[in-house]
User: Fold this.
Amino acid sequence: MRFWPEKNPLPKNRYQNIASFEPEFWKKKALSDLSPEEWELLCDGCGKCCLNKLERRGKICFTNARCRFLDPESCLCRIYEHRFEKVFDCRDINLKTVLTEPELLPCTCAYRLLAQGKDLPSWHPLITGRADSVHQAGMSLKGRPLISETEVKNYEDYIIDWPDL
Ligand code: SF4
Ligand code: SF4
Assistant:
């Protein structure tokens, strides 16, 4: 999951300074040419990449078991700055991951969409200018039936087939 460092604005204010960025920069630049700040703004904050996954018969299956450190209300990581120290399989959503392991991301993920040559959806915060539009559109994990991974005995029991994964 991508998130923003603590020194950056509060999540709800992330898009306040969008006017200081080149308009529609995501249409004009390749993913590999984005600045770190532009890359971060592409993350819509859905939280769906923080769901546990299983590999079954060579296919990645999402479960509704969330990482124990994902806040289900805000859909943000509680330990972002230390995530790789605390969670051995937490993946950095960088260009290499997006290009080589897109199946780890939901089909709505902006990085995955752009890597496929598609545009951002109308609810994306870069389009609406509001960080909460991902929640209002029902595209984040907010309000969904989730279980913490700490309560899971058998991940097979929690495989889901949501259309936006
Ligand atoms: S799935 Fe993509 S857009 Fe959603 S939180 Fe993860 S990196 Fe961000
Ligand atoms: S530590 Fe967990 S909640 Fe945080 S980014 Fe990694 S998978 Fe997501």
Observations:
- Residues 1, 50, 67, 69-70, 77, 79, 83, 87, 90 surround iron/sulfur cluster (ligand 2) (CB under 6 Å).
- Residues 53 and 100 are 17 Å apart (CA to CA).
- The longest strand covers residues 59-66.
